[in-house]
Amino acid sequence: MEYQALYRKYRPKKFSDLLGQDHIVTTLKNSIIKDKISHAYLFSGPRGTGKTSTAKVFAKAVNCLNLEAGEPCGSCTICEEINNNEIIDIIEIDAASNNGVEEIRELREKVKYAPSKCKYKVYIIDEVHMLTTGAFNALLKTLEEPPQHVIFILATTEPHKLPLTIISRCQRFDFKKISVQVIVEGLKAIIEKENIKIEEKALKKIAKVADGALRDAISLLDKAVSYSPELITTDAIDEICGTVSEEEIEDIILNIINKETEALLFQVNNIANKGKNIQQLIEDIIYYLRDLLIFKNVPEYFSTDNFKVFSELELNNDDIYQMIDEFNRTLNEIKYTNHPLILLELALIKLTTGVESKELKKTIEKDKEIKEENLEKKEESKEEIEDKKESVEDSEEILEKLKKIRINNTLALADKKVLEEVKIKWLDLTSYSLDPELGPSAGLLLDADVKVASAESVIVSYPYESMALRINYDIENMEKLLHLVIGRPYKIIAITEEEWLKIRGEYIGALRTGKKYTVIKEDVDYGVLAQKNNSEDLKSTSELEQKAIDIFGEDVVEIE
Ligand SMILES: [Zn+2]
What we know:
- It is elongated and about 100 Å long.
- Helix 5 links the parallel strand 2 and strand 3.
- It starts with 5 loop residues before the first helix and ends in an 8-residue tail after the last helix.
- The protein has helices at 6-9, 22-33, 51-63, 77-83, 101-111, 133-144, 164-167, 180-194, 200-209, 214-227, 234-241, 246-257, 261-273, 278-297, 308-311, 317-334, 340-353, 358-412, 416-426, 439-446, 465-472, 475-486, 497-513, 527-534, 540-552, and strands spanning 40-44, 90-94, 121-126, 150-156, 171-174, 449-453, 457-462, 491-496.
- The chain folds into four domains: 6-174, 3-Layer(aba) Sandwich (Rossmann fold), CATH 3.40.50.300; 180-241, Helicase, Ruva Protein, domain 3 (Orthogonal Bundle); 246-356, Zinc Finger, Delta Prime, domain 3, CATH 1.20.272.10; 395-524, no CATH class.
- By secondary structure, it is an alpha/beta fold.
- Strands 2-3-4-1-5 form a five-stranded parallel beta sheet, covered by helices on one side. A three-stranded mixed beta sheet has the order 6-7-8, sandwiched between helices.
- It is 58% helix and 8% strand.
- The protein contains 25 helices and eight strands.
- The site of zinc ion has 8 residues, from helix 4.
């Protein structure tokens, strides 16, 4: 039989198979039982924590023909076809490879059609943050008015990269890293079924290295099986992962306690020469020390003969805390240096002699200088961000001004006959809706509610602000299209329904009191609006900020 990767073979098929995300599973199950299903979900969280698996189980559960207390039965035709990936109503899109507007536009086209067999068509869009701005806008349009038979599940490891307009339309679930204990349990179930021989310690090491990602843990187990099929030992895991054995970590700690500085330096250099990861080594030392602290205070917590070597040593909590502190500090500083080994050596010297080595310190100081230079550069970029923000604020002001003038002028010259004429010509927009370039704009305009028109301009309204903004920030292109349809240069301004109610109220009030609207000169340079639209639309600031965060880290770049 063809070999199947373990993580595929053991992909969760039911809610009860999903590990470590109990709060999410319970909520989803209840929503199905109570028939309170929403049309858009956002699953965010670190990789390997079960986002797409949960999405698939959910897709099955909402469509299953014999639902059992919120769980898909697994044996009806729908469940079977979904399990075998044979059903066309569950559509998985990987945004990382399909980030074009085209794919989403195609999705928008097909969304309208009823599902072939299922009750719900479920779109699972993985890594949704990779979509382009154009694709987001297209998706947003669908999310704003999703057909009854459609459910969207957006999955992402980086929710901060999503436009707020998308996030606000979804019911959001945050997936957490899965604990070592839960991962060990999950692996044990597989080990039993597959009859895999593995040392208990090796199992725990896999779970630790996987860092909260069950999928990574299962993949690692898979690798380990092919690496040493008879018995998986911790050595095998260390070889595969570039980690250091527990005995070696024990030795390091013993050497610290016995103040064997030279032996220690020799030892860590040796480890580094083998190409092991120093940061991972420090993390492992801290992890070990934490366990040692527990052992010192609650020995019965560990059933094995771990820490036997330490039981005879005189070692108090303060000693252990001091080591943990020192290694934690080192771990923090490692981010800013190209010399992780030197930092580790410094820490070891300090722990064993109580003094800090001057020569080593110099190298680190130099590193720090470089780091500070970089910090200055960061400051500069921060200014750039501020500039960018200003220009966004500017464009908001300009739009407000333009809106005021155009609303006023359209009302001042409002003509009912012209309105009828415009409404009829508006329908001609349909002939552009299949045009590859003008199609999206035509579609957006067709969705508008034409409220007031004069010979020169028109006020249109939309239920959502995001839609109105898409007109206003692309006003020049919209007007080019309107020129074609109306047959003369024609201005437009878009507002929300809410704004319209207010404007209408004011207009009626003015008519009653005899106040007249007079035409104001339109001296607004709205080129900057299009600029904003071109510069990656409405999420330009957040994207720039994100870029800065990617480069400099979250604590340097503050987000309001
Ligand atoms: Zn079923």
